[in-house]
Amino acid sequence: MNSAANSQTKVLRGIPVSAGIVIGRAHVVETPRLKMVYQYLLDEKQVEREVERFLEALHSTEQQLANLKESMPEAIRSHGFIIDAHLMILKDSMLCDATVEKIRKEQINAEWALKKSLREIRRLFEKIEDPYIRGRIDDVEDVIDRIIRNLAGDDDPPLGDITQRVIVVAHKLSPTDTSEMDASKVMGFVTDVGGRTSHTAIMAQALKIPAVVGLETITQVVEDGDLLIVDGISGDVIINPQELDIIQYGERQTQYHEKESLIAKSSHAPAITKDGHRVIVRANIEFLEEVASAKENGGEGIGLYRTEFLYLKARGLPTEEELFLDYKDAVERVAPEPVTIRTLDLGGEKFPHFSEPLSETNPALGLRGIRLCLKEPEVFRTQMRAILRASAFGRLQVMFPMVSGLQELLDAKRFLDEVKEELDREGIGYDPNLPVGIMIEVPSAVAMAEVLGRHVDFFSIGTNDLIQYALAIDRVNEHVAYMYQPFHPAILRMIRNVVEAGRQCEIPVSLCGEMASDPLCTGILLGLGISELSINTRAIPVIKELIRALSLEEAKRDLEQVMALSTASEVQEYLMGRMKPILETLGRGESFLELSSTGK
Ligand code: PEP
Ligand code: MG
Q1: The overall pTM is greater than 0.90
Q2: CATH of the domain at 168
Q3: pLDDT in tens, 459-509
Q4: I need a labelling partner for 10 at 20 to 30 A (CA). Which of 163, 268, 515, 520 fits?
Q5: Do 135 and 181 lie in a common domain?
């Protein structure tokens, strides 16, 4: 707790995860059932009845999740895969079979048996290195909590009884809780736990509801009906504010709305620097449903459509028709702007259900991206056919990931030609001039860029992987995360070399790694000669606005200074001094904190 204005007014500071300011009454959500589970022993005759009761609760849970997926609000439909994951957890034998076994062997009630199963599953998760996957224990808890609610015969969703506009106060909010509520009644979210990448954060952003998480004790301090001010920009939550607080925050709220609507208007205008240099700003997406927010935020088409999702969520391989409809829909919705479809980049940590994870000592250096596709020609052919067929319906460009040299590129292009011939024989239409590009994300491709550039129509620099491979830093290994340095002079030199190769080969060079979405990097990327950025949808308005406040001449001068520096921290410090004040002048200081992964 930071301060107390008087005996009732309290201020808590948490992590702001969805911007905006709201003033309203609290609706405190009951603590998860998991905490209120007790053990009782069964006698012999009750055991089978208990197993049945458990299986019925599983069945109701499954039905509820399936219904929920059907009725998800449009704005969060792209997160439906979370519910698919919950359905998979529900059917996992570690949860269902193990719990039935405990009820039978130990003759205990279903709730207690479930809690014991959770303890075992939690122990397994604790051993997982990847922090994202380790964090998914939250999903297991959400599923178990729902089963326990069903065991108690309570199928009312915790947020289903909201009738007036309120601010939801909860220990945590599961994605399914969020999907079940009437979003039009929720003014804001505040929770005890959660971080920047928690599901609550992602959902709140998708629904454009201000949210602050990680407040630790908010559920203990706030009572139902208390007046709250939630500042989703600073992370402050004021409980029972004074008259003056309400007036001040009311004014800030109005200013925020005015600024937002101004940005929304200007986000559709092109990004042209003060000295007249045009930068194309496209969107990175992973799901078809994100096309809407890409357009809404002023994205000039899609610069990177990561296509792994349909392969990761399904139990089997997606069919050509399924892929075709997905790509065609994207192309038609984005027309006349282009959609850049990246062919499958599976392998590494992303392993599909259709194949067993290979046992590789270094998966990031293993059978990944274009290598895997060339080894699995049937999978590749199906995707290629879908891409080519969709190209007849708008502007589509295709790009290959993880290309490490010319031979691989020629093999992939030959494959594409064979599929084109196949379609010709079948009389199926496609765009004969389909532009073909490659991701530049392996250091050998940087070294060979002027050779590779003669065989493609564009380059897109994938700095996420380029940094990993160039600096020998596993991008998901937290022990070396401190060395993952986008501003390493080696990375800046590599980008400069690729831009130069693009210029020699007369092809456009775009950049689609996280650096493109980071406001701290915008000026230096301009100076390096990048003419196209592909970025996270929510970063588009700010990056466009920032480009308009910069000049190419100044950016080039900055580049000269930066290229004379020898370490990543020197570069970062220099850029911080240059970019942060510009953002603050634009009134976007908070976006800097929200979007910059390098400036914190
Ligand atoms: C990259 O590597 O920079 C990139 C954009 O691709 P991904 O993050 O999907 O590997
Ligand atoms: Mg990559």
Answers
A1: no
A2: 3.50.30.10
A3: 999 999 999 999 998 877 778 777 888 999 999 999 999 999 999 999 999
A4: 163
A5: no
Query: Which residue's alpha carbon is nearest to atom 4 within ligand 1?
Result: 462
Q: Which H or E element spans position 521?
A: none
- Determine which helix (DSSP H) or strand (DSSP E) holds 578, and give its type and residue range: helix 568-585
Please, what is the average pLDDT of the chain? Answer: 88
Question: Could you tell me the distance, in angstroms and rounded to a whole number, from the CA of residue 440 to the centre of ligand 2?
Answer: 9
Atom of ligand 1 nearest to the CA of 465: 2
CA of 441 to the centre of ligand 2 (A): 6
20 Cβ inside 6 Å of ligand 1: no
Helices (H), 391-488: 406-426, 443-447, 449-452, 463-471
Say if residue 293 is in the same domain as residue 438.
yes
Q: What CATH code is carried by the domain that includes residue 139? A: 1.10.274.10
Kindly state if the Cβ of 551 falls inside 6 Å of ligand 1: no
Catalytic residues: 199, 512
Which of 101, 130, 151 corresponds to the end of one domain?
Answer: 151
pLDDT at 261 over 90: no
Q: Which domain holds residue 451?
A: 267-357+366-599
Task: Return all residues near 486 (Cβ < 8 A) that are at least 6 apart.
Answer: 463, 467, 514, 515, 518, 521, 568, 598
pLDDT, tens digit, for every residue of 133-175? 677 787 888 888 888 888 888 766 667 677 789 999 998 887 6
Do 496 and 580 belong together in one domain? yes
115/194 same-domain check: no
**Going by CA atoms, what residue is nearest to atom 9 of ligand 1?**
306
Q: Whose CA is nearest to atom 8 of ligand 1?
A: 464
